[in-house]
Amino acid sequence: MADKHELYTVLTATQRAKLRASIQGKARTHGECRVVPDAVHAGAGRRCIYKQTRVPGVPSERNLKVYMHKFMAMENMGRAPVGDEEGSHLCGNPACVRLEHLVLESGDVNKTRDCCRMFLGVHPLYICPHDPVCIRPVSVAAAAAAAASPVVLVSVDLTDDDDDFE
Ligand SMILES: [Zn+2]
Ligand SMILES: [Zn+2]
């Protein structure tokens, strides 16, 4: 298998496009995130088991696999990781593979985002120190808002095409 840091430059533009489409095809919408259904989170204090996928167009015997979230981080940044950089979730959702929610950054910075996952949008005085800033997943924010205020449903008739005023 290619060195993980060289992978991005090893792949052709066509392979990258296919891989991106393949990952997006596997994901489903969850709040603002796009999650891979069987991605597993091992729990508090444990390492995440991120989903890997094969690179389309590469013979399987070469066993070229990539972490989906890390590949999408590379796609978003337009470059390969440098040094100890990891695929880091702005949304704090380990199963998310949405391009806009992923960046490459050092493992140390990545870990500090755990703090935002706990407090951002929960503690009113908490301010995210990161650049780019953390995204509070809408599912969590919506749950908090729903608990704070009743839901009002507004019905709009989109089929109304009367011409009384013509
Ligand atoms: Zn996300
Ligand atoms: Zn943050």
The count of β-strands is 6
Number of helices: 5
User: What structural class results from the helix and strand content?
Assistant: alpha+beta
Taking all Cα atoms into account, the compactness measure Rg is 20 Å
CATH topology, what is it called?
Homing Intron 3 (I-Ppo) Encoded Endonuclease, Chain A
List the helices and strands and how they pair.
Layout: H1 7-10, H2 13-26, E1 28-30, E2 33-35, E3 52-54, E4 65-67, H3 68-77, E5 85-89, E6 102-106, H4 107-119, H5 138-148
Antiparallel strand pairs: 1-2, 3-4, 5-6
Question: What does this protein structure show overall?
Answer:
With 166 residues, this protein is α+β, with helices and mostly antiparallel strands. It has one domain: Homing Intron 3 (I-Ppo) Encoded Endonuclease, Chain A. It is 31% helix and 13% strand. The chain is built from five helices and six strands, in the order ααββββαββαα. The protein has helices spanning 7-10, 13-26, 68-77, 107-119, 138-148, and strands at 28-30, 33-35, 52-54, 65-67, 85-89, 102-106. The strands form three sheets. It has a two-stranded antiparallel ribbon. A hairpin with a 2-residue loop joins strand 1 and strand 2 (33-35). The longest helix has 14 residues, at 13-26. Residues 42-46, 151-157 and 162-166 have low confidence and may be disordered. The structure holds zinc ion (ZN) (2 copies). One zinc ion is lined by residues 33, 91, 93, 96, 98, 101. One zinc ion is lined by residues 113, 116, 128, 130, 134.
